[in-house]
Design goal:
With 217 residues, the chain is mainly α. The chain has a single domain, classed as Fumarate Reductase Cytochrome B subunit (Up-down Bundle), CATH 1.20.950.20. 63% of the residues lie in helices and 5% in strands. The chain has eight helices and two strands, in the order E-H-H-H-H-H-H-H-H-E. Helix 1 packs across helix 7. It is elongated. It starts with a strand and ends in a 7-residue tail after the last strand. The relative contact order is 0.15.
Length: 217
């Protein structure tokens, strides 16, 4: 007998468009943010004011895309918690099991303990990471970004959260967290049965999953 691959339509077109728009906007924020933070070392746009405009525009896109994402999953699909919040089983056993796979078992050729389905897209570690990013980091970066874009108009709010220096420092730390997530996300995405196995579905929508063994004929 031999194993065969089955395909399921896991990522609809609107979700794929949202993913790449959100990803491109986050990368734009990181690049322009580095130029604003270290203008003497990073000079991609060549103009500080241009970097500010592009950075702010990308921030607005991230904020709007977050609202669209939240409305879609929380109110239209009504499965935000089931997809992005780890279950008791995920917390008790899934995280350790998935960490062992990523750290050791993958390199020994063992199968992924998480089987992708339409109702269970993400493994325990993915749920935890995406929950932290989408429900904590993105809201925080949007709020701090809005305050920094409107310091004079929102002066009282800026002072209430600790002042301008605190706000700038927090925004920078959030950017570092996003960069760390991006690096880890890209690396773990290569740990499929081929290095591109997890990248192709987010372009085509179709995810390959292990099917049941079939008889040789």
């Amino acid at each position: 007998m031999e194993e065969h691959q089955e395909k399921i339509y896991l990522y609809p077109t609107p979700l794929r468009i949202w993913h790449w728009l959100h990803a491109f906007s986050i990368i734009t924020l990181l690049v322009t943010g580095a130029e604003l933070r270290f203008p003497e070392y990073v000079q991609l746009l060549g103009n500080y004011k241009a970097s500010v405009r592009v950075h702010n525009a990308a921030g607005i896109v991230v904020g709007v895309s977050f609202v669209v994402w939240f409305i879609y999953y929380a109110f239209m699909k009504r499965n935000l918690f089931s997809i992005y919040i780890p279950s008791k089983e995920d917390i008790r056993h899934g995280m350790v099991r998935q960490a062992l796979f990523y750290g050791f078992q993958y390199f020994r050729g063992e199968p992924n303990p998480h089987q992708v389905t339409l109702d269970n897209k993400f493994n325990a570690l993915q749920k935890t990471a995406y929950m932290g990013v989408m429900l904590l980091l993105v809201p925080l970066v949007v709020v701090t970004g809005v305050l920094l874009m409107n310091v004079a108009f929102l002066r009282d709010m800026v002072l209430a959260v600790g002042g301008l220096n605190f706000l700038i420092g927090l925004h920078w730390l959030l950017a570092c967290a996003f960069l760390a997530f991006l690096v880890v996300h890209l690396y773990l995405s290569t740990l499929g049965h081929t290095p591109w196995a997890h990248f192709i579905p987010i372009w085509t929508g179709w995810e390959e999953v292990e099917g049941h063994p079939k008889e040789d004929v």
